[in-house]
Amino acid sequence: MQKAMDEKDKNRIKKFIAIVEDVKKSRFYRETKSVGFNLNFEAGKGLEQSTSGYDEEDFRSMLLDLRKVIAKKEGVKFTEICDLISANTKDVATANNVATCKDLYLKEDTSVEMIIDGVPENNSAMRDKWINGKYFHSDKEAELQAVGIGRELHKYNFVTAMIGLISLVSVLGREAQAFLREIDDN
User: Fold this and answer.
1) What's the pTM?
2) Residue 1, in any domain of the structure
3) What is the domain count for the chain?
């Protein structure tokens, strides 16, 4: 028989749910319909690239919350919340849905989005470069600059990866709510 979940872990799940709700309330989430990548090349002119379809400040604002589910120090890391729910749920559907979420997250996190100077770069590394090199810190700015001409495509891949993460976070948020109802009923 499983032991009762302690308040600390229950509060971590509640914090995760609150973060999910904050992400879903963001203007980026509510107003962004599609994100595009534009590439224009004319002989004799420079290469023009842009990422479009969203407001940059809305994106940065939403990232303030979303990055908490990928940072270990917040106590609400996506994979840890998955493990916490999986270890404590008695509901087979919840357990299966959470396992699927975790599998998709891990596959997405390690999938290669770009090859830069012959070196494959997965989503996790790309995310780290943008969050720490552009949006919130500057400790990886040099790495981001080293992407060179592919920087805008790199950014597009980052933005679309974050949109994918929002989808997974939303699903896990619903499963976390169902799990809390389950343990409150017992």
Assistant:
1) 0.89
2) no
3) 1
User: How far is 46 from 10, CA to CA, in rounded Å?
Assistant: 55
Paired tokens of 20: 């999910």
Residues 6+ apart with CB under 8 A from 132: 138, 139, 140
Higher pLDDT pick, 119 / 16: 16
d(CA 80, CA 6) in angstroms, rounded, equals 15
Q: Which domain holds residue 156?
A: 7-185
Q: Is 96 part of any domain?
A: yes
113 within 8 A of 157, measured Cβ to Cβ: yes
Residue 1 confidence (pLDDT) above 50: no
- CA of residue 98 relative to chain centroid, distance: 16
In a domain, 170, yes or no: yes
Q: Choose from 45-59, 83-97, 100-114 the range with maximum mean pLDDT.
A: 83-97
2 in a domain, yes or no? no
Are 152 and 50 in contact, with CB atoms under 8 Å apart? Answer: yes
Rounded Cα gap, residues 65 and 109, in angstroms? 18
Beta strands in 8-96 (DSSP E): 36-40, 48-52
The per-residue pLDDT for range 51-82, each reduced to its tens digit, is 999 999 999 999 999 999 998 889 999 999 99
- On average, the pLDDT of the chain sits at 91
